[in-house]
Structure formats: structure tokens, C-alpha cells
Amino acid sequence: MIFKSVGEGRPYPTEATARADWAQVPPRVVRLADLITVKRTLDLETLLDEHSTFFGDLFPHVVEWRGELYLEDGLHRALRTALHGRPTMHARVLVVSDKGTRVAATQGRSSR
Predict the structure, then answer these.
(1) Range of the domain at 87
(2) What is residue 112's predicted lDDT score, i.e. its pLDDT?
(3) Count: domains in the chain
(4) SS3 readout for the chain
(5) In a domain, 51, yes or no
(6) Mean pLDDT over residues 88-100, rounded?
(7) Rounded to whole angstroms, how far apart are CA atoms 70 and 19?
(8) What is the pTM of this model?
(9) Rg of the chain over CA atoms, in angstroms?
């Protein structure tokens, strides 16, 4: 399996992610096998578009909550990484508390 789990929806409080300035969160390496997706479906056109990373953030957004890593945005990038045979990718990781507040942006350490 590519991901740790395939989820449906965001189990974590979303207040911090809505207010987060993702561009200020430094990217770090994460293992695909440690990620839990928050979407069950993907638009195949988005996945296969050769310019899919042209607009927007080049790094997927991951929320760390209660010790788990949730793929908030960038499912198509994660799947492209897996299709290229790579087990890791760079992502912006935002640590969120149970109360929905931003705790920190982790940097410089690999997940697990």
C-alpha cells in the first residue's frame, strides 16, 4: 500500500489549517507510508496533467495531529511520487493541537 491509510474527511480541527500561511511552513521530507489521506478520490486529469504543479504551492500540505500525518492537500503529487518509485517526498508539515491551534511547523527532521 502506498499510504498508511486512506481516510475520508479531516479528523483534526481545521481552524489552524484555514488560517495557516502555508508558504511560511518550511518543507521537510515525509514518508508516503506514514501518510493518511483525507480524500478517497482523485481527479485523474489533475494527476496526469504535466503542468499540475505550475500553479499554487509546489509542496503538498500535511497536518500532524495526535502523532499522525494527514495529507491535507497534494494527493496528486504524492501519487506521482509513488508512481516514480520514490518512498519519500518533501511536504509542508503543520503541527496542530487538539484545540485546533497551530502548535508549530516542523522542520529538518524526517518522519519516523
Answers:
(1) 5-41+56-105
(2) 45
(3) 1
(4) CCCCEECCCCCCCCHHHHHCCHHHCCEEEEEHHHEEECCCCCCHHHHHCCCCCCCCCCCCEEEEECCEEEEEECHHHHHHHHHCCCCEEEEEEEEECCCCCEEEECCCCCCC
(5) no
(6) 90
(7) 17
(8) 0.81
(9) 13
Structural domain contains residue 110:
no
CATH number of the domain enclosing 76:
3.90.1530
Three cell numbers, residue 97: 493541537
Q: What is the pLDDT of residues 4-20, one digit of tens each?
A: 999 888 999 888 787 77
Give domain status of residue 90, yes or no: yes
Cα separation, 9 vs 39, whole angstroms: 6
Pairing of strands 27-31, 5-6: unpaired
Confidence of residue 108 (pLDDT cuts 50, 70, 90): very low
Domain membership of residue 112 (yes or no) is: no
Backbone angles phi and psi of 90, in degrees to 5: -90, 135
- At 47-81, the pLDDT tens digits run 666 655 545 678 999 999 999 999 998 888 898 89
Average pLDDT, the chain: 83
